[in-house]
Amino acid sequence: MAMPLASETSHTVRKTLEFVQHHRLAKGDRLPSERELSERFGVARSSVREALAVLDAMRITERKPKSGIFLRNAVEDGGLDALVLQADLGLAFDPQVTRDVTEARIICEGRALQLACQRRSDADLAKLHGLLDSYAALIEAGGNPADADVDFHLAMVAASQNRILVRTLTPLMLMSRRWRQRYFQSAEICRRSLDDHRAFVAAIEARDEAAVATLVRRHVQTAAADVRALAEQGGAPPTETA
Question: For the residues 89-112, what does the mean pLDDT come to?
Fold first, then answer.
């Protein structure tokens, strides 16, 4: 998954992607040289070099010997790590990407929790109940459950005993970490989230596959609607789901 970047490298990555978006560069288009980017962004060439190494690793740009730097893929056409990076940098997603992320999460998490109903072990249930108790205590104490929410959802997915599903859902969850703390400042959202988590655990414990599929769909769609409402109030980007 995407790793945290040094501040100047992060700044340069952001400026490079903004340049690509502003100039509507397409796959195969040539970017300015390292020197030109350094002068344009007002940063050291070493920072440009590090930023391009990040973008190269994510298959967004590529260097061709004696030819220059070229756009390999649009950010949206790269891997999930590229979308996590875009979210971390606060760059807006295409509306279709937002829709696609919501659909992908419903499909992947829904299927993962159906498998969890079939395969969950006593140890899985004990972990989920422990996380649920901690989640409830955190909310009762007035804390922000943003990180605990991610841990809980990934623990449910892990109960599917399918590591690829865990690795697929992890970046989809991380795409929302930039604003998640703000989202969970709402006491109403915290309470509703806790109620949903209790329902999830009960359904997995009862091996009720139909119930978990319905819960995932409602949970994700409701969160997406909340985000849109927050965005209209200027409280969060309209491009992520909780």
Answer: 85
